[in-house]
Design goal:
alpha/beta; Rossmann fold; seven-stranded parallel sheet; two-stranded antiparallel sheet; 9 strands; globular
């Protein structure tokens, strides 16, 4: 049985996540503005990555192109889309998902914080794991997560989603400490 994944934002910091899915035998569709191939090493499991030229600014076209590339309903959606474009993009691709397909929404640190929490999942009809990407603190300074740290954290949420675990928010790294707001 072919397992299909739609990975939006999968040609950048989620490339490691997309590559891991391909290595596990998934057919992965990667809508993106820029071509960034996953290494063309067809694993024994028969997985494959397929890039589709698409832009978040045109969610309907993104969904249409992704639909043609998928060749059937997606069994998994992993999406790292900026907060402003997230609702329109995810709603546009919702029709491409199998009824029971889990969703993994990836958020940058600006989308969630310790006080306000994480935004509500966009696709309420699909079990959603949310990943909030933070920072690594070391010796009194902070740095962004590496691509490998990001992929590992997102893959953990993907495995939780595929295992049917209850929806949850996963923090990868630490929140940056912001100064108190003056009133």
């Amino acid at each position: 049985m072919t397992r299909r994944a739609l990975v939006i934002g999968g040609t950048g910091m989620l490339a490691g996540c997309a590559a891991a899915l391909v290595a596990d035998g998934w057919q992965v569709v990667l809508p993106s503005r820029r071509y960034a191939p996953i290494p063309d090493e067809t694993p024994a499991g028969g997985g494959q990555a397929r890039w589709v030229e698409a832009d978040w600014a045109d969610p309907k076209q993104l969904a249409s192109r992704a639909e043609r590339a998928l060749g059937g309903k997606a069994d998994l959606l992993v999406a790292w889309v900026h907060a402003r474009a997230r609702p329109s993009v995810l709603r546009a691709v919702a029709r491409l998902l199998a009824d029971d397909a889990p969703v993994v929404e990836v958020h940058g640190s600006a989308s969630a914080n310790p006080v306000d929490g994480c935004p509500d999942p966009i696709l309420e009809d699909h079990p959603t794991q949310q990943v909030v990407l933070g920072f690594v603190m070391r010796n009194g300074s902070t740095r962004w997560l590496t691509h490998a740290e990001t992929a590992e954290g997102v893959l953990d949420a993907v495995h939780r989603a595929l295992d049917g675990r209850a929806p949850a928010v996963h923090q990868v790294g630490e929140f940056r400490s912001y100064p108190a707001t003056r009133r």
